[in-house]
């Protein structure tokens, strides 16, 4: 791929993310995207085979690195405590959503709609997410000898992680906070970690925060 081709492709993706976020997938046309990207509409068919292919590219760009945050922390379970790995993964997910706030809001909104696309997202990506989260949470529950429905814990955690980015206007207008700001991310991560400790009975919170800071997350 030449530099020019790469630039054109990226311009199309950036335009699509902005318009999908602002107008929704169904409300956005190929001509809208082409006009925003300042390219010929034929380029979208050339690179992505149409609007559906462009949507799939956006989903891949969100979920592949998103799941990598979890997968990498699962891979560290043999050397770090499970709750430390989980809290580190949570911080990385918050940072990732902050850095890609338009894409995050669009993707989570798309998943909430009962459609063929959302069902494919669930089977392709969110089942993997469930697997990784269970692997991060279960060891701590077993260690603390806690009998707790892990499904309920994961559902609650998912809601907590998504809320500021799905409802960013509410967070900014009602509470005067910016979900993308480092201060918000640090305080929110601290609150989530304390919440997890209250469920798991873990006493390693301060150590986990120290470890997270040392990892640069």
Summary, kept brief:
The protein is mostly helical.
Query: Helicity, in percent?
Result: over 70%
How many individual domains?
2
Question: What best-fitting shape do the alpha-carbon axes yield?
Answer: elongated
Q: Largest sheet at a glance? A: none
**Order of helix and strand elements from N to C terminus:** HHHHHHHHHHH
Which structural class is indicated by helix and strand composition? mainly alpha
Radius of gyration: 19 Å
Q: What's the number of extended β-strand segments?
A: 0
Low-pLDDT ranges: 204-217
- N→C terminal distance: 33 Å
Beta-strand share of residues: under 5%
Oligomer: single chain
Q: Please, what is the average pLDDT?
A: 87
Number of helices: 11
What does the model show?
The chain is mainly α and 217 residues long. It has eleven helices and no strands. It has helices spanning 3-23, 30-37, 42-48, 51-74, 82-99, 101-111, 116-143, 150-166, 168-175, 182-200, 205-215. The longest helix is centred in the middle third of the chain and has 28 residues, at 116-143. The radius of gyration is 19 Å and the shape is elongated.
Task: Summarize this structure as a short list of keywords or feature phrases.
217 residues, Arc Repressor Mutant, subunit A, single chain, mainly alpha
């Amino acid at each position: 791929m030449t530099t020019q081709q790469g630039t054109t492709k990226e311009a199309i993706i950036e335009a699509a993310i902005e318009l999908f976020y602002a107008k929704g997938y169904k409300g956005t046309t190929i001509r809208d995207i082409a006009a925003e990207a300042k390219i010929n509409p034929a380029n979208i068919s050339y690179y992505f085979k149409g609007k559906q292919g462009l949507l799939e590219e956006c989903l891949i760009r969100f979920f592949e690195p998103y799941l990598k945050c979890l997968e990498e922390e699962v891979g560290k379970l043999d050397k770090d405590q499970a709750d430390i790995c989980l809290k580190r993964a949570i911080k990385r997910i918050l940072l990732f959503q902050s850095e890609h706030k338009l894409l995050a809001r669009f993707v989570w909104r798309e998943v909430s709609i009962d459609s063929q696309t959302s069902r494919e997202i669930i089977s392709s990506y969110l089942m993997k997410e469930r697997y990784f989260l269970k692997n991060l949470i279960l060891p701590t529950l077993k260690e603390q000898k806690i009998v707790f429905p892990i499904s309920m814990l994961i559902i609650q955690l998912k809601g907590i992680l998504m809320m500021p980015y799905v409802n960013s206007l509410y967070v900014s207008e009602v509470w005067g906070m910016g979900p993308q700001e480092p201060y918000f991310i640090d305080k929110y991560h601290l609150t989530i970690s304390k919440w997890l400790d209250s469920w798991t009975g873990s006493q390693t919170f301060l150590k986990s925060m120290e470890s997270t800071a040392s990892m640069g997350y």
